[in-house]
Amino acid sequence: MTLYGEKSPPADDRPTVQVTAVAWPDDGPATVPAPAVGEPEDTPRRGRRMRILLAAGVTGGVFAAVAGAGAWAYAGDVPRGTTVLGAELGGRSRTDADRALRAELDRRAAALAAPLRVTVGQRTTDINPADVGLAIDVPATVAAAAEADAHPVSRLVGSRTVDPVVTVDVDRLDAALGKALGNEARGMTMPAITYQGTTPKVVQPKPGLALDPQRSADLVRAGWLTGDPITVPLVESHPATTPEELDKLVAELAKPAVAAPVTLRTDKGSVKVPPAAIAKSLRFTADKAGKLTPTVDVKRLRTALGDDLNAIEVPPKDATMSISGGRPTVVDGRPGQQLDTADLGRDLLAVLPKSEGREVTGELKPTPPALTAEKLAGLGIKERVSTFTTRFTGGMASSRSQNIATIAKEVDGTVVLPGKTFSLNGHTGERGYAQGYRDAPVILDGKLVPGVGGGTSQFTTTLFNATYYAGLEDVEHKPHSYWFDRYPAVIESTIFWPDLDFKFRNNTEYGLLIDTSFTSSSVTVSIWSTKIYDSVKTEYGPRRNITTPKVIHLEPGPSCIPSNGINGFAQDAFRVVKKGGVVVKREKFSWRYDAEPRYVCGPKPS
C-alpha cells in the first residue's frame, strides 16, 4: 500500500532519486533507497522518513527563530541593553544615541554645573566645572557605547553600563588648584655649583611638594559624576641630581678644574687659560628635572681671556661707510682668523678634571666680517634724512668741548641695521679717564659739580634730535632735570653711565649711517638712509605750572659752581610726521622741569 491508503504506483512512477536527510541517532545511513515494487510504505522505513521530515521542519523553525532574534539583537549601532548615565542607548543608531544622551545631559544640567568641592593639600576649594573645561564628550561616549563588548548571547539577554568620556582642561584645572593651594606647595631646590672667584659654591638639592597636573585631572574626572569627595594629593618630587652626585661633581670636576691653568695651543702660538677664566666659563646647568650638566661657555671664555687672544687671533674688520664729497662711500672690510669654537668647549671640559696633561689644541679658521661691503652697499643708505646741530661756548680748549668731540668721534660712522636698536651706553661703554674723557660740570643731586664726562649730554641731545627728525622709534631717553636754553624744550636727553641711557630703534627696512662732525662752538649729527617721510616737525603746547628758582648758598671752593637759576615749567611737544601729504603719526612727548636754584658760592648775607 502507498502512504495515505493509495495503491502502489505503476512501475514507471517509482522513485529513482535518493533523498539526503538528517541522520538521527541509531537510524543508520542517511541515504534512503526507493521502496521495491509492491513493498508496503508503512514499514520501519516510513517511520524513519517521518522523523526526517519532522527534523527538517523543526530545524527550519529554529533557524527562522534564531534569525529573527539576531535581527532584533543587532538592530541599531549600539548593542541592546547599553546605558550611559541611566539613558538607554541600546538598539539605537549613533545619531539617535547622540540625541538621547544629550537629552539626558540636559535633564542633569543643573547637577553637572554645580561647583565641585575639592580638597587639595590641607585646603578645600569649590571649582566650577565650566571654569576648568569639565564636560562630557558626547560623540566619543556614543562611539564607546557602540564598541562595547557584547557577545551574541548577551546581546539577546544581557545589559551593560558604559562610562561617559569626560574631558577637562589640564592647564586650567592646575591653575585653579594651584591658586587654592597658595603657599602650601614648594618648588624643588635645584642643585647648583657656582664660583666665588675660584672657590666652588654649592646649593644642595631639596625635594619639592607640588601638584601632579595629570593625576589631578584623572581624580577630578573620576569624581565629578559620582558625587564622591575629591581629594587631590600633593606629590613630593626630587631633583634628578642627588646630593651624593652633586658632591661627586664638586670633588671630581669643579675643584680640580680651577686648580691650575690650561694651555691652549694653536698653529699661531699658545695661550694660558688661567683658573679665573675657567671659573667664569665653566657652567653647571640644571634642567627642569634638576639634572645638573657641566658645560664650557666658549663666549664667556673669550670674554674672560680678553686681549690675551690677540696673540693668536686676527679679528675680522667690518666694512665701513663715510661721507665723502656729499655722498656715502663704502670701504671694504677684511676677514680675520679666530678660534673654531665648535669643539673647544668639549675638549676643554675633558681636561679640566685632570691634574696633569692640561692642554687642548685649538684650530684657527678664517672668519668673514659680519658686515661686508656688498651687504653694506645694499642697505639703501643713499641720502641725508635728517640733521641737527647744537652750540656750545668755551672753544675746544675747554674740557667740556673736548668731551663732546671725543664722544662724537666714537659714534661717527656707526651703521645701524634694519630692526636693530642702538644704545649709546652700549656703543661707547664707560666714559672715564681711561677712555679720554675729562672732568667738566655735571648735574648731580640737583646741582652742578665737577665730574668726568661732562658735556656728553649735549651730544646725546644732538643725536636724539637727529633720530627724532628722521622719524625713528624712540626707545629710551630722559630729559634733564633743568632746562637749558641751548636745548629745545622737552625734545632733549641726558646720559650718565651706567644708569641713564639713550636708545633708538631703526624701525625702517633700510640701514642707516650716523655721521657726526664738530667745530669749536657746535656739534652736528646727521642721519643717512632712504627718506621715508615728507616731513617731521614739532608742535609745542603752552608752558604751564611755572616755578621760580630759590637761592642757595654753598661753601666756596673748587667744587662749588655758581648758577643764575632757571624757571621750572611743564610742557608738551608733539612730533608730527607726514607722508604723501597726510599726517601718519602724531606722538606726544611731555616733561616737567624743576626750577634750577640760584647757587651762590659764599655765605648768606646777614
Task: Explain what you see.
- The protein is an alpha+beta fold and 606 residues long.
- The protein has three domains: 3-73, no CATH class; 243-376, Ubiquitin-like (UB roll); 379-601, no CATH class.
- It contains 15 helices and 38 strands.
- The strands form 15 sheets. It has a four-stranded antiparallel sheet. Strands 33, 34, 36 and 37 form a four-stranded antiparallel sheet that branches. A three-stranded mixed sheet has the order 4-3-8, with helices on one face.
- The chain starts with 18 loop residues before the first strand and ends in a 5-residue tail after the last strand.
- Mean pLDDT is 86; it is low at 1-41 and 62-69.
Total domain units: 3
- The separation of the N and C termini measures 167 Å
Question: What is the number of helices?
Answer: 15
Number of DSSP strand runs: 38
> Roughly how much helix do the residues carry, as a percent range?
25-40%
Radius of gyration, whole Å: 47 Å
Structural class by helix and strand composition: alpha+beta
Strand fraction:
25-35%
Largest sheet: 4 strands, antiparallel
Unreliable stretches: 1-41, 62-69
Keywords: Membrane, Transmembrane, Transmembrane helix
Organism: Micromonospora orduensis
Pfam family, one: VanW
Transmembrane segments: 52-75
